[in-house]
Design brief:
Structural class: alpha/beta
Number of strands: 6
Mean pLDDT: 91
Low-confidence stretches: none
Largest sheet: 6 strands, parallel
Number of helices: 9
Strand order of the largest sheet: 3-2-1-4-5-6
């Protein structure tokens, strides 16, 4: 909704919202997590995605963590990728995975105690697909307050929306106590079936002459 509000101001016309559909059945509900708990960063390895904040978080909390995400040549700032790899290699807490296959990605989501999503440089997350996927497995999300995450996360129920890294540091321990079933229930809001029905309704409105 944050993205729609911004477009509305720019275009001077109403802008409707359609959330991305996610087939949550692809993400098995896994209430029992790995012990000791591990945090997960599952984002493209870019500075705007705040991977460096995730490393700082793990080091501050002295918690184990995993960094996974696209680090291919599609990522223009390969110097940043190299820096993250080096920092992980020198860390006693964080393991670097980089670009992983679908099976590994799902396993990381299932067994993480919490998925952490940050941002930097004025970036706004329009949706936040990995957050929905995480919730589908029963894994809560601790994230920077951003457009997409505000739509997905029920603050204090399925995760926490944070205004600064210091706040995230305080919220992670609380996130580990959240109910996995509540997380899964929240993900169902974005399931492919209700989202496809919403898309069909919107397209019918377009056929009838609605501009959005």
């Amino acid at each position: 909704h944050g993205h729609a509000r911004t477009l509305c101001r720019q275009l001077h016309r109403p802008v409707s919202v359609l959330w991305n559909p996610v087939d949550i059945d692809l993400y098995p509900f896994t209430p029992q997590k790995t012990s000791p708990p591990r945090l997960l960063s599952l984002n493209r390895i870019m500075a705007t995605k705040g991977i460096h904040y995730f490393l700082q978080l793990c080091e501050t909390l002295k918690m184990y963590g995993d960094v996974a995400g696209d680090d291919s040549t599609l990522v223009s700032d390969q110097a940043y990728v190299t820096n993250i790899k080096q920092r992980c290699a020198g860390s006693a807490y964080v393991q670097y995975h980089g670009l992983v296959n679908e099976e590994t990605r799902i396993q990381l989501l299932r067994h993480a105690a919490a998925t952490c999503c940050f941002k930097d440089g004025g970036y706004e997350e329009v949706f936040g697909l990995s957050a929905v996927e995480s919730l589908a497995t029963g894994t809560p999300v601790v994230c920077a307050r951003s457009w997409g995450f505000e739509d997905i996360i029920e603050d204090g129920q399925s995760g926490f929306l944070c205004n600064a890294l210091e706040e995230a540091t305080q919220k992670v321990p609380a996130a580990l106590k959240l109910n996995p079933e509540v997380c899964r229930a929240r993900a169902k809001l974005f399931d492919i079936h209700p989202r496809s029905e919403a898309l069909a309704v919107m397209l019918q409105h377009v056929v009838e002459g609605c501009r959005w």
